[in-house]
Design a protein that fits this description.
The structure holds two protein chains of two kinds. By secondary structure, chain A is mostly helical. Helix content of chain A is 78%, strand content 0%. Classes of the chains: A mainly alpha, B mainly alpha.
Chain lengths: 100, 471
């Protein structure tokens, strides 16, 4: 492995934090969903890197499953968001406050 | 390989396929309810029949041991109870009923898989499947605006929690190369001081804390309970919580390997959960929001059992799971019956319940006494077992803090009871339409809660045997 494992972890960690910041700071449902996707991809990078580190396949198999699950997640999430947008015309999470 | 051990999953899968077919046929709510009831009863019967049949899939990915089989009985029993209150599913459009049951059984399938999964991949897939089914279930309410809002809040917290868990898995794999829970626990024992392993463990627990509605991931609970159909709320409050406790029990070996710092952190989370849940519950007027806050507090009590690493503590958590199942379901039985028109019941809607339906009021009293931990109910015995196991492990301060919290919780449980027993109903309140069977169910639940509270020994024996299978 040419790239040291520490660098891969650093990249994954940075991406994860970026995704988290996107989720917390952006006030747009689509951007929040994108932030979650970035967090998932950070985990995938860490898994592929670890897979290379150990010269084992398990990490890569996990990543393949994560890709499929992430697609399912986006389909459920986008369906929800589109439905919410049709009803209220808003994408701002703060616009939904009937509960409470 | 012994396939009999996986029969509960097969029945759930069969039910999913059946409802997939029914979803294509013209709407017929009566047929859907009968089919769901029959299939859930079949699931319970099969789970009971195969409790001693164990099996394991190759490569240690999926294991049906005694622990998993006992948990599957709890999950199947919970599903039967929830389906039993779905007879009058007026708050979901009739043409959506097959999809409603399809998702309910999918979720139950995922949760039976969750308590059997011992490979990280299997745990992750089961966790996600159960969550996705629940997100869509929450949407299905006639007042779609409420449903969508609750589902959005549930979804956003849930996907963040599962991404956090996944990153934790990745870190653990990066440090240890282990992908099964057993191998991870072994590999982590010497790594307590490794910061990557510690962070990985902590993040891993995030997704499961979301399921249990424990402190940093508890925000969704009141909104989702309030916005979802009552039956879905009942499912989330009972079966979903039981499954979360099950998978967290599976993970306790990992938690233990995390060493004292992690245990301290869990203790802090337990205290925060109890306090936040109880204090938030005090001001609630909406009965379902109150139950959600009490769920958060109960997550804290359960965490005390989970961080005390001993077979007695594990058995205590299993006992507590049974208690939560019965007590919370009884409360939701009242919610469903009182709010026959699909509105959310407020505390004042309970006024005069003792006259309108004495049996229901009695069952509610037993459930509330149990939740508050008053003897002689199952809730008292469960709390006693958890607290005793924790004291034996040297967590005396934590237990004293929990006791103080129990006193706080007594206040709002008694407020509910006061509404049901002492308040006079406002004039013009329509007579309560109690469907046939509900009084019988309520009486059976009240008897079960008191009987198991008085004679817990057989249940404790079974829980201890199941906890021994955890290893």
């Amino acid at each position: 492995m040419i790239v040291p494992f520490g660098h891969v972890l650093l990249l994954a960690g940075l991406l994860f934090v970026l995704g988290m910041v996107c989720v917390v700071a952006r006030r747009n449902l689509i951007m929040i969903l994108l932030g979650v996707e970035i967090m998932l991809n950070a985990a995938a990078i860490a898994l592929v890197g670890a897979s290379l580190r150990w010269q084992a396949m398990e990490g890569q198999v996990l990543v393949l499953f994560i890709l499929a699950v992430a697609a399912a997640e986006v389909s459920v999430g986008l369906a929800l968001i589109v439905n919410a947008h049709r009803r209220s015309g808003r994408l701002d999470p703060n616009a939904f406050h009937r509960l409470g | 390989m012994n396939w009999i051990g996986f029969a509960p999953e097969m029945v759930n899968l069969l039910a999913v396929v059946v409802f997939l077919g029914l979803a294509l046929a013209p709407a017929n709510p009566r047929r859907d309810f009968v089919a769901a009831m029959a299939l859930s009863l079949l699931g319970l019967a099969v789970s009971l029949a195969v409790v001693r049949a164990t099996g394991e899939l190759p490569h240690q990915g999926y294991r049906a041991d005694l622990f998993a089989q006992v948990y599957k009985i709890l999950l199947a029993g919970g599903l039967v109870l929830v389906v039993a209150v779905c007879r009058d599913l007026a708050d979901v459009e009739a043409r959506r009923h097959p999809e409603f049951f399809l998702l309910l059984f999918t979720c139950n399938l995922a949760m039976t898989m969750l308590v059997s999964a011992v490979h990280l991949l299997a745990v992750y897939l089961a966790l996600e499947l159960s969550s996705y089914a629940l997100y869509v279930l929450v949407v299905l309410r006639r007042d779609r605006e409420l449903g969508v809002e609750a589902a959005l809040k549930y979804f956003l917290v849930g996907v963040v929690a599962s991404a956090v868990t996944l990153f934790g898995f990745a870190l653990l794999y990066a440090v240890t190369r282990a992908t099964t829970l057993d191998a991870l626990a072994r590999a982590l024992v010497g790594l307590g001081a490794n910061p990557l392993a510690a962070v990985g463990l902590l993040l891993t627990l995030g997704g499961f804390f979301f399921k249990l509605a424990v402190f940093p991931f508890h925000f969704w609970a009141p909104d989702v309970y309030q916005g979802a159909v009552h039956q879905v709320g009942a499912y989330i409050a009972t079966v979903s919580k039981v499954a979360a406790m099950g998978v967290l029990l599976r993970l306790t070996a990992l938690t233990h390997a995390g060493g004292p710092p992690l245990v301290t952190l869990l203790a802090v989370l337990a205290m925060a959960s109890m306090t936040v849940g109880n204090l938030a519950a005090i001001g609630q007027q909406d009965l379902k929001r109150l139950l959600a806050c009490s769920s958060v507090a109960h997550g804290g009590y359960v965490l005390i059992g989970l961080l005390s690493f001993s077979p007695a503590a594990h058995a205590a958590v299993m006992f507590y799971a049974l208690g939560v199942l019965l007590m919370k379901f009884t409360c939701f039985l009242v919610v469903v019956t009182v709010a026959g028109d699909g509105r959310n019941p407020r505390l004042e809607d309970l006024a005069g319940l003792h006259a309108r339906s004495p049996v229901l009021a009695l069952a509610l009293m037993m459930a509330l006494f149990g939740l508050a931990g008053i003897p002689p109910t199952i809730g008292f015995t469960g709390k006693l077992l958890v607290f005793k196991a924790a004291v034996d492990q040297g967590h005396l301060a934590l237990v004293i803090f929990a006791m103080l919290n129990v006193v706080v919780s007594l206040y709002y449980y008694l407020l509910v009871l006061k509404a049901a027993y002492l308040a006079e109903p406002a004039a013009g309140l329509p007579p309560l339409r109690v469907p046939r069977g509900v009084p019988v169910l309520a009486a059976a639940l009240a008897c079960a809660m008191v009987a198991i509270g008085f004679f817990p020994a057989p249940v404790i024996r079974l829980a201890l045997a199941a906890a021994a299978a955890l290893g």
